[in-house]
Task: structure prediction
Amino acid sequence: MRKFGVLLGTVSILVCPLSSPVSAQFNLPGLNVPRLIERNIMRSTRQFRRVLGVVAVAAVGAVILGRFSEGERREIAKRAKRAVETDPEREVVERYEVKNKLRNVTIKASPAAPKSAFRDDPALSSPDDDGGDQKKGKAGKKTRTVDEDAVPYDQVPEATRCRRVETQVADLGNTKSDAPPSSDTHAAIICEMTQGDWKPTRR
Result:
């Protein structure tokens, strides 16, 4: 009978955490898991921008960069910066492929055009993967986010020329599998505020 009681207690310990919310499992009432994930992305983005540069991270996106090793991120950032700054009069395409050839990145910068050409572009209104615009914290105060490095689109002079930069990462997976490759895309509008000085923009 004693053995049965011990066994029943063990089963209860194993089952209960699986059937209860995350906050209850760890005795953390009100735990906001999506918010924790968002904060983690924001921290990663700040770190990427310090190391790789604001333009490169805006062009590729922190979520995509997070899938690669440090060395691979540097190579991707180098290609992204080159795509933005090279020959604005034509479309520029840069590519990077990891050594095992199971994942590749394509960065495409459109020909430069006046700011007005991108006013309705979804890249401006799509959620930013680095935490978005400034948000209100406690007591209604605005908290600074990593998006502080982007120029508000309405403050960009009309004569400024901009480029739409789109990055696609393709995961080819197991080459022996019949499953189709998966891909994700990130887009940004990056404008030349002064000659040779490109800045990401936001709504």
Summary: Residues 30-202 form one domain. The chain has one domain: 30-202. The helical segments are 2-19, 22-25, 33-52, 54-60, 62-65, 70-85, 122-125.
